[in-house]
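Sequence and structure are no longer studied apart. To make this concrete, we show below a single chain and its fold as tokens.
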Amino acid sequence: MGFISLDFPREVLEIASDGKQGGRYSVKNWAELERYWKGKNGSGNVYFTAYGYRATKPPRNHRVDYDTPIIRHFVMDFDCKDFKQRGADVDFPFMHEQVKRLHRFLIHENIRHFVWFSGGGFHFWIPLRDTHTPSDGYSVARVKEGGRKLITQWHKKLNLSCNDPTVAFDTSGMIRIPNSYNSKRGCWSIPMDSDSILNLTHDEIMEKAQTPVSGYIQLGENDVAITVADRKSPFKKTVEKVEGLPDITLGSTIVLPCLSQAALGEGNPTHKARFHLVTYLAARFRWFYPVAAIGNEEKAEHVKLICRIIEEQGWVDYNPRVTREQVENIVFGGAGNSGYSAASCATLEYDGLCVGKCRYFDGSIGDNNE
């Protein structure tokens, strides 16, 4: 068995080393991806969607249809942050010990995986036994729910607090291209063998990463499976709420797990994910009162807070003027001043953002959706 198949079309983006922001656009085949990759390595950071897709969005078809991913694998992203402690910074050895625990567990279970040093942490690419091809938001949400259950089991069993819970099974998210250059860290993303994962120090890994390495290193032999619900909606009102992945917070504000995965962190979130994040934050900041019940001075303060949050995420196409205009439109309620309510769980599931029934489930998905 080889590395995971790269399906097309998929989307690519660049975060330039000089701080210039790149765009997000689709590549139709391996040749296009390779031309893009070779043109950027050494001068910027190159990313692509973790998945390929089966369709593009008409009429221009220059972007993929995020409801049609080809899900053959998932990626776990380990950073020097403790997500059980609101993303607090930790030192490299603390994170590295968790990487070793996961690797030892996967080797013991003979689960096939591939590991890359990413510059600041590690990426685990883990193939799935079955290929999942959802065709709408509901079916995307079911796959995410199945993936969330598996990841949660591993989190609890191995105490993986440094695994970014927003990355795995994010079907529209971006990941650094394996073996590409990390201009921010000044090193290459390199494939890791078992001995290097378990025995090298950070300085030794960084030294190795000064030289580009091609190819991949397979670890383990058997692919893992996730359980996907066969009904239209994965939820029943009678089912008890379950604990999900670690909470992501922005200051004292908890962000829903689905919105954390879809919109927070570096990358280029979809318009749909950004819209739902802003409507949710706007509603949280006004304590879910109607828009008309809040004065303009307070709304203006909410605009500042939300724009500051967005600026800190590192979206590659971030534009302060455009962001402020769109946030103001949502916070102030648009031309009719009727306002935008935070989306229900049913809407988030329909839009393919749901990652499974979490402690914040609002009861809007029930028996009538089966």
Remarks:
- The first strand starts at residue 10 and ends at 16.
